[in-house]
Automatic annotation (TrEMBL):
Protein name: PX domain-containing protein
InterPro entries noted in UniProt: PX_dom, PX_dom_sf
Domain named PX: residues: 120-229
Region (Disordered), start-end ranges: 58-96
Organism: Paramecium tetraurelia
């Protein structure tokens, strides 16, 4: 293949890669290209760049027409209701946010499934490189096994990202664990093994939450083996609308409390301040940890260099001893060789203590605070505008423009004489909208309390586990290091003793 042909192929591959990054369905597009060129349509060399661009545009247009012909069912969340099929009848309830009395509102109930038990686990067992076929770019798939069900699936890193985005979309008031960002397309085992560790932590965190693991999104992620079936499910979930009201939220009981006591509102504000203030603390910790890692690596390399110097000294002494007929420095050479071995051991020791894992800070909980803050701000703006509107309507006195609630039992005269009652019943639709926003704020406030309590508990367990492991590693290293120095003393003393005996033997032989 000439350089021009190679350059042309590289342009076509880059074009296709860019299209896939923008959301092009590679499998469907490849089938479409084969339909245009039954003979060799799946070979990129059989297309010019202009022909390829034209064919891709035709494919996009055909997909657009197909989507327009399909009914729009994104609002009913039909796929999610496979896991929560029963939505309890909604009730018209008056919410009094000034009261501490709980007000339970019906929502989607999370029904138990195969993943709800305590003995279920999902483990990433291996990974492998896959070819993307026509679209040329290779990628890595991770093999996940779910026990005790025996499910085995292969998922890409982008599938893990989709899983997290979907959980965050439909469970906005729950702490969805973070997933480590992909910063490279490396296929090196060292990089991929580290990625497996991060993604396994992500799955483990999901399984700590009954609500997150007991839904159709996680179940299908772990159980759908056919790639086209899984992609179809992904697409349907992506198109589904996220919950905008309390009634469309999900809970284990099928009901949520929408009134938060005053102390919980105060708790939410104080813990929000805490999470934002400690960002700087963890930033310093990351910087110092990185600096400590670099120092340990430098120490390890310097110790290895010292060992190499003694290795060089041994070589020079050994060379000298080979040419000397008498008075050889055998003892010094042996000592130099031992020093080299000893410093190798030291270098390995300092390299090992550098491999201790640092604690991980889960910042995803801040998303709940940010959502609550946005809803609270929107609520205050809405209430202010609605209050002004009601004031104007009440002053004008034209009750026909008040948009009164249908279940009102008061006479127009009673309403015109009682401003408080009038405000309660006028602008019915907007008043209900205000009530819905108040319910959301109460719901998020209660969720912040329960989620932060669970978060603090998990953080404590992780920190205790981390420092136990840290202490175990240090105890082992100290014992190992103690043995290393003890062996050094013994070996050096034996070396001197051997040298003394050899000298005495030489003297005896010379006298004899």
């Amino acid at each position: 293949m000439s350089q021009n042909q190679q350059g042309d192929k590289a342009q076509k591959e880059q074009y296709l890669s860019d299209q896939v990054e923008k959301g092009l369905d590679a499998d469907l597009c490849a089938q479409f290209l084969v339909s245009l060129k039954p003979e060799g349509g799946d070979d990129i060399d059989n297309w010019s760049l202009s022909e390829l661009k034209s064919a891709i545009e035709q494919f996009k247009e055909s997909q657009k027409q197909a989507e327009e012909q399909q009914p729009n069912n994104s609002e009913d969340q039909s796929n999610l209701q496979q896991a929560q099929p029963q939505e309890q009848p909604q009730q018209n309830q008056q919410i009094n946010q000034q009261s501490n009395t709980p007000v339970l509102v019906n929502c989607y109930q999370i029904l138990p499934n195969e993943l709800s038990g305590d003995n279920v686990s999902a483990k990433i067992v291996t990974y492998k490189k896959e070819s993307a076929g026509f679209f040329s770019s290779s990628y890595i798939v991770f093999q996940i096994e779910t026990q005790p069900h025996g499910w085995v699936v292969f998922r890409r890193y982008s599938d893990f990202e989709w899983l997290r985005d979907s959980l965050q979309k439909f469970y906005p008031a729950f702490v969805v664990p973070p997933i480590h960002k992909k910063r490279s397309r490396s296929f090196e085992d060292t990089y991929l093994n580290k990625r497996v560790i991060f993604m396994q932590r992500f799955l483990n965190s999901i399984f700590k939450s009954y609500e997150l693991k007991s839904n159709i999104i996680v179940k299908n992620f772990l159980s759908l083996t056919q790639n086209n079936e899984f992609k179809k499910f992904q697409e349907s979930i992506t198109k589904s609308a996220p919950p905008q009201t309390v009634q469309r939220m999900f809970s284990k009981e099928g009901q949520v409390n929408c009134v938060a006591p005053g102390e919980l509102h105060q708790y939410a504000q104080q813990t929000q301040d805490y999470f934002y203030e400690i960002d700087g603390v963890y930033k310093k910790l990351r910087v110092l940890s990185k600096s400590l890692k670099e120092i340990q690596q430098q120490n390890s390399l310097k110790i290895y260099c010292v060992g190499e110097i003694f290795a060089s000294l041994f070589q020079h002494l050994n060379k000298l001893n080979q040419v000397l007929p008498t008075g050889q420095a055998q003892g010094l050479a042996a000592t130099s060789r031992y020093y080299k071995q000893h410093y190798d051991y030291l270098g390995q020791y300092y390299w090992k203590i550098n491999r201790i894992n640092r604690g991980h800070y889960n910042s995803s909980i801040k998303q709940i605070y940010e959502t609550r803050a946005v809803i609270s701000q929107d609520l205050e703006k809405f209430k202010s505008k609605l209050h002004y509107k009601k004031e104007r309507l009440f002053q004008l006195g034209d009750i026909s423009k008040w948009d009164l609630s249908k279940d009102i039992k008061l006479s127009p005269q009673e309403l015109q004489q009682n401003k408080k009652l009038a405000f309660q019943y006028m602008c019915d639709q907007e008043t209900k909208q205000e009530m819905g926003m108040e319910m959301l704020v109460g719901y998020y406030t209660n969720q912040i309390f329960s989620q932060t309590q669970q978060f603090f508990k998990q953080q404590q367990q992780e920190l205790v586990g981390h420092f136990i492991k840290f202490c175990q590693v240090q105890a082992f290293n100290i014992t190992d290091h103690h043995q290393l120095w003890a062996d050094a003393i013994t070996n050096l003393q034996n070396n001197l003793l051997t040298q003394k005996r050899q000298t005495q033997q030489v003297v005896i032989e010379s006298v004899g």
